[in-house]
Amino acid sequence: SDKALQQLYRLCPDLNDQSVWFFLTLKKSAEGRILYEKSEKCAYVYDVITQKRFSSFSAWIKALNGKHFFKGKKSALATIFLKSNCNEANIGQIINRENYTSYFKSTEIITLPSIKDILTTMIRDDAEFASITLVESEGFL
């Protein structure tokens, strides 16, 4: 997975300054941002909490492990997602264009971000809901 970050950026250059999430469990995740350094022609993962940047997904995961975020080894390809819920495609599916078996036992996970995504799409795409505004506050919509 040392090359996965660069491969992902080559496939999806619009990911610059976009968030990615490392999911340890269904309810525990860490947010990073993909940043591209034009001068170095290299993508990095910027950890939102520690404010440090890493040259690979595996270096980011290793740093999270060092901060006791989790124990053991985790696959970047299986546990990093472009959305804040793990119902979406992981980076392994995007890079390898394969259907990975879900890392998590339950594939139908309902989270607040996934509900918000669905409702936002409904509001945007249906004139009937045009007057509705979603407001998010500490775990509530």
Describe the structure.
By secondary structure, this protein is of the alpha+beta class. It has two domains: 4-100, no CATH class; 110-141, no CATH class. It contains five helices and five strands; from the N terminus they run αββββααβαα. It has helices spanning 4-11, 57-66, 76-79, 91-96, 112-125, and strands at residues 18-25, 28-37, 42-47, 53-54, 80-81. The longest helix has 14 residues, at 112-125. The radius of gyration is 16 Å and the shape is globular.
Helix fraction by DSSP (H/I, runs of at least 4): 25-40%
Largest sheet: 5 strands, antiparallel
Number of strands: 5
Give the CA-based shape.
Answer: globular
Protein name: 6060_t:CDS:1
Per-chain topology:
Blueprint: H1 4-11, E1 18-25, E2 28-37, E3 42-47, E4 53-54, H2 57-66, H3 76-79, E5 80-81, H4 91-96, H5 112-125
Q: What keywords describe this structure?
A:
2 domains; 5 helices; 141 residues; 20% strand; single chain; 6060_t:CDS:1; alpha+beta
Short synopsis of the structure:
The protein is α+β, with helices and mostly antiparallel strands.
